[in-house]
Write a structure and sequence with these properties.
434 residues, alpha/beta, 7-stranded mixed sheet, 5-stranded mixed sheet, 14 helices, binds pyridoxal-5'-phosphate
Length: 434
């Protein structure tokens, strides 16, 4: 939460107590900081938890303070507003959330958004101009592909993509072709890719970008870290400049809200904040408050879901009705395993299950599930299963589906925090029902 210190020298205001970030040289872990970081109860009547600030605007102590805050809002003074102004720009719940989101990946700054897509749209609008080229890994979440290709395409923005698992040489080649096409203003990645689970070599992308562009023309690298972040992958440490989130998934974690975030350096977050201020894509205070609650159990939830997924996948892999299981924890050798070892701290809990057969078998399996729910989305406390070819990726042309491995026998599963043996029993009986 911003420090609303006295700006006129006449009416000193109470400052939030400084956060305790270390004890005796021991740096406190994110799971500890999620309980109190960025919030001083003394500023809210001693309330242990932050109240939800349902207000559209904030009262200035003096006109001079209001002017100074607006200098931050309008960008006349870098670093954002020094105080609370108007709820399209900032608010206490959002600022506490942003402080805590940054902690997991040691990001300098963070912004919250009304959805993952509004985070992505605001990021793209910030950096991309007509005639520019976006280089991206493929596949991307379907709405992100639509936004880049069809919507920004209407404004004269071009794009070139490379396959998620591309080698350094292949990335070099795409960047060289992109440079010939126009100004490359953004490199946009998604890893693991939805729905193939293919990992992008972020280190190779950063090395390729640094070799291809001089310091003054270097496009930022943004990465959608929804599937493994913030626990299992920290791409800012591997050369990405910005990490993007659908907080709707693991961060929210209870399938009861829609939200997004972008985290990264202050220098890159500042212009994105300006764009958010203008177009009004900030998260609402109530969802921000719910996310604060979610973050308190983030490590517990994700750890349990990850352990459950390992057990369920070990069961599924050996089942006679299963063709294969696309689970990051099974990567043993080859380029994908190498990227996994260098970039990932865990295998996640979302994976692909290829059944023997086709749509009939996939549907029979899904219809027979008793614990797992038949729904799209992922990262919630409950286990979800869906058929991408018939649902989320129904509109993808057949050739592209085939190239991406989105076949009729593919079931996408996101494992929750239920009892692992109960889940194994459920998947066992559903496979028997095929
Ligand atoms: N990125 C990824 C990888 C996703 O899976 C999703 C949603 O499924 C999004 C972004 C969009 O997020 P939201 O639905 O919160 O707008």
């Amino acid at each position: 939460m911003n420090d609303e210190s006295d700006l006129t020298g006449t009416t000193p205001r109470r400052r939030p107590k400084p956060d305790v970030l270390e004890i005796g040289g021991r740096k406190l872990k994110p799971s500890t900081l999620m309980m109190g970081h960025g919030f001083d109860p003394a500023l809210s009547e001693g309330s242990l938890k932050p109240p939800i600030f349902l207000t559209s605007t904030f009262v200035f102590e003096t006109a001079a303070a209001g002017k100074r805050f607006f200098e931050g809002i309008t960008g006349k003074r870098p670093g954002g507003a020094e105080g609370l102004v108007y709820s399209r720009f900032n608010g206490p719940n959002q600022e506490i959330l942003e402080d805590r989101l940054g902690v997991w990946e040691e990001a300098e700054d963070a912004l919250s958004f009304s959805s993952g897509m509004s985070a992505i749209a605001t990021l793209l609008l910030t950096f991309v101009q007509p005639g520019d080229v976006i280089v991206h890994s493929g596949p991307l979440y379907a709405a992100t592909e639509t936004l880049i290709a069809r919507i920004l395409g209407r404004f004269g923005v071009h794009y070139l993509d490379f396959a998620a698992g591309a080698s350094r040489e292949e990335i070099d080649d795409v960047l060289a072709r992109a440079k010939a096409l126009g100004r490359v203003s953004l490199i946009y990645l998604e890893s693991p890719a939805n729905p193939t689970n293919q990992l992008v070599d972020v280190e190779a992308v950063a090395a390729s970008r640094d070799a291809a562009f001089g310091a003054d023309e270097r496009p930022p690298i943004a990465i959608d870290n929804t599937f493994l972040g913030p626990l299992w992958q920290h791409p800012l440490k591997h050369g990405a400049d910005l990490a993007v989130y659908s907080l709707t998934k693991y961060a929210g974690g209870h399938s009861d809200l829609v939200a997004g975030a972008v985290i990264g350096s202050k220098a890159l977050i500042n212009p994105i904040r300006m764009m958010r201020n203008t177009i009004g894509t900030i998260l609402d205070p109530h969802s921000a408050w719910m996310l604060l609650r979610s973050l308190e159990t983030l490590e517990l939830r994700m750890s349990r879901a990850g352990e459950n997924a390992a057990k369920v996948c070990a069961f599924l892999r050996d089942h006679p009705k299963v063709e294969s299981v696309g689970y990051l924890g099974f990567l043993k050798e080859g380029r994908q395993a190498d990227i996994f070892k260098r970039h990932c701290l865990g295998a996640g809990s979302t994976f692909s299950l290829y059944l023997k057969g086709g749509e009939r078998e996939a549907f029979a399996f899904l219809d027979a599930l008793k614990i797992a729910k038949l729904a799209v989305s992922l990262g919630g406390t409950e286990t979800l299963a869906s058929a991408p070819a018939a649902m989320t990726h129904l509109s993808v042309p057949d050739e592209r589906k085939a190239a991406l491995g989105i076949s009729d026998n593919l079931v996408r599963i996101s494992i929750g925090v239920e009892d692992a043996d109960d889940l194994v029993a459920d998947f066992g009986q559903a496979l028997a029902a095929i």
